[in-house]
Structures are given as structure tokens and as C-alpha cells.
Amino acid sequence: MALTAAALSAAACSSDSSTPDPTKDPAKAAAGQQTFRFDTFGDESKWTDVLQMQTVISSAVDPTTALSVGLKVDATALPDAVVQGIENGTVSLTSPATTVALLKLNAVVGVQGTVTTDASGNDTLTKVGITCALCHSTVDDSFAPGIGARLDGYPNRDLNPGAIIALSPALTADQKAVFNSWGPGKYDPRYNLDGLNGPVVIPPAYGLSGIHSDTVTGDGSDLEYWNRYVGVTQMGGHGTFTEPRTGVNVTNGTDDLITDKLPDLQTYQYSLPAPAPAAGSFDAAAAARGKMVFEGAGKCSSCHSGPQLTDANTTLHDPSEVVSEPEPNAEPSYASRSATKKYRTAPLAGVSQHPPYFHNGTAATLDEVVAAYDTKKALGLTADQSADLVQYLKSL
Predict the structure, then answer these.
(1) What are the pLDDT digits (tens) for 188-219?
(2) CATH number, position 297
(3) Using omega within 30 degrees of 0 as the cis cutoff, is the peptide bond preceding 356 cis?
(4) Distance between CA atoms of residues 158 and 180, nearest Å
(5) Which residues span the domain enclosing 242?
(6) Are residues 266 and 291 in the same domain?
(7) Which of 158, 192, 206, 315 is deepest in the core (most CB within 10 A)?
(8) What's the pLDDT tens digit per position in 129-142?
(9) Are 270 and 388 in contact (CB under 8 A)?
């Protein structure tokens, strides 16, 4: 089978900031791509020294298991001999040693491994770290499910980060129970700071150019804010994150391996366009009618406004205005745990490509999204109007 290639801001919202134009500095975008894909910011301190994931992987994580929890393999990093071995069955997909070999080839998306080889040719995985690509990249499955060319910016909704973290022998049973409760495609980026459990869906990192409140609660004015937050407080990278609005003040290590890389990383992320809808994935005539519903009876454009179909650059919304605000597990609202205490209006470019919907994934389909708004906002849409509106959303 052939392979195919396919500075911290504390501002809640800013209407006068601008996003980098990657076309004006492709070198910055290229450097940012390397950071996005391969830089751990020194987070081996967490994943190796504390969580001991190198031991877990070496003993219990074979490729079949890794793929089952949503890890992806970059097929373009595989030598021909490995490709042929996978195809003819001489490369075992049920041996942890194969996972170590894939890490040595730098082929596991979002995971960096340090592998040492002794005089007899035996490989030992000594260090493990993660990168931005773990959650915010997937592959095109061009070789096999979970194996293909990288698709940066796509949320990995197959990834079960909680289940992966729960493999660590360093965690208590109660901690493991929380991590295992999240499920595929979800992650709570505040649990380790406030002790509450309310996971959100992994968001796309594409289609964000020109949008200043990039995260679901719009805590910072640009991606550098959230990149620093995640890099330090979640990945465990070396650096400092301080947020007086939530009382978070975290420093890892004695060196700063994050700050200098943030501008290039953000430039690369802003270079990632939202994917166009697949040919034949929507009814064009119905979508044209649905656009009129979107702008009229559906009242969608009151918040999903302007060329980006979001008012996030100027407005954040109280939880009472948001359809999905209650958390499924009865925990406090995710917004109440944030710096802004509000939600931003999500941009809609490529929306059909990343279900489930709402910040906590409570709507599995766009039909459920429309039905939820129709009910909560008492819109009174007819069945035809709802169906047409869904087709319009699929066309974006």
C-alpha cells in the first residue's frame, strides 16, 4: 500500500491586537512548525521523572494499544523496511518494543522519546515528553487507521489523554478514576490546578487567524497566552505562567524553554487554515436557504457575526447565555473556573469537521446543536428550517 504525503497577556479580550501574518514571514512559521511538532519544552521532567511513562511504554504499550487510545503514527517518518514489515506482518504491532522503535524513528505524533542502544543493539527508552501535536494534530489514515500523513491543527478527538495519563504508576487510585472518566477527545486543563473535574473537548488549532480570544473562555488575547498556559501548567514544560485572575502561579525548572519559542509557534498556528468541506458533504441548495435561517429566524448571526462568524474579538458571554453551560457531571461550570468567567462565541470555519460540539461535547452532531438552541432560545424553527440550517453549517 503506497504512502501519501499529504509574553503572557492578561487581557480578557482585545479588539485592537493583531495576529501574525505567516505569509509575511514564512521562516517564523517554519520554525513554529518544528516547535509545534517536536518541542517538549523540557517536559520530560513531568512525563519521565514524575509520571514514569517511559517505564509504562516499554513494558505495556504496544502499537495496537497505542492506536486504541488515539495515538497517531506519522507514516512519512517510516522507512520502507518498516512499512513493508507492517504490511507483511513481520513487524509486530503487539510488542512494546515496536512502540519504542517507532519513537526512535520520531514517528509517534506528539510524543518524543529518547532511546539508547547498547553494544548488543538493544534499545532502551530512557525519556519521554509530549508536544503540542499530541492533542492538536491527527493523521489522514492514508496507510491504515491511525497511520498516515500529519494534519496539524486538527483536534485529535480519538485521543484519550486521561486514559494515557492514568497508566502512570505515580498516581493514586482516585486520580486515575478522574482521568479515566474523561473519555476520548476530552481533557480538563484546570483539574490539576483547582481539583475540579469538568473536561472540555480538545479544540481545533486551525482557522484562528484574525481571532484574538482563541480559547473557549477567551482568557487571553492571543494564542501565546494559552500556549504558555498549556506548556507550563499542563505539559510540564520549563518556564513560568502567572494568572492573577485565577491565582495560578506555576514555575517549572530553573530555565525558561518556552518564552522565546512562543512568537514562532503562534505564527505557525495562525497559518493553519480551517479545512474546506468535503465534496458532496452538504446540499448546496439547502445550505443557501439555511444561510437565510442563520441570519434570520435562527438568530445565529447576533453572536456568530462578521467575516469570522464570531464576536469573540469584542464580546464574551455570561454562562447564562450559553446553551451548553451546565456540566454533565454536575461540577461547577467550566467558565466559573476560568479567568474571564465567560465564554467566547466559537468561530465556525470547518465546524463540520470536529464533532462533538459545545465546550464539553454535549452535542454529538450539528443537528443536536440546532435542536438545543431552538429549544433554549425558543426560536420556533420548523423541521425544514432546522435541516437547512444544518446544511449551511456543514458548508462552512
Answers:
(1) 999 999 999 999 999 999 999 999 899 999 99
(2) 1.10.760.10
(3) yes
(4) 14
(5) 22-270
(6) no
(7) 206
(8) 999 999 999 999 99
(9) no
Residue type, 56: V
CA angle 159, 311, 359 (to 5 degrees): 25
CA dihedral (372, 12, 355, 228) in degrees, to 10, reads -160
- Beta strands 73-74 and 147-148 are parallel
What does R_g of the chain's alpha carbons equal in angstroms? 21
CB neighbourhood size of 214 (10 A): 25
List residues bridging with 343 in a β-sheet.
317
What's the rounded Cα separation, in Å, for the pair 185 and 292? 33
Each residue of 49-94: pLDDT tens digit?
A: 999 999 999 999 999 999 999 999 999 999 999 999 999 999 999 9
Which helix (DSSP H) or strand (DSSP E) does residue 163 occupy? Answer: helix 161-165
Burial of 373 (0-12, 13-18, 19+ CB in 10 A): buried
Q: Domain check: are 331 and 389 in the same one?
A: yes
Long-range contacts of 234-239 (CB under 8 A, 24+ apart): 234/189, 234/192, 235/40, 235/41, 235/43, 235/46, 235/129, 235/130, 235/131, 236/43, 236/45, 236/46, 236/47, 236/50, 237/40, 237/41, 237/42, 237/43, 238/41, 238/42, 238/43, 238/45, 239/41
Q: Are 92 and 64 in contact (CB under 8 A)?
A: no
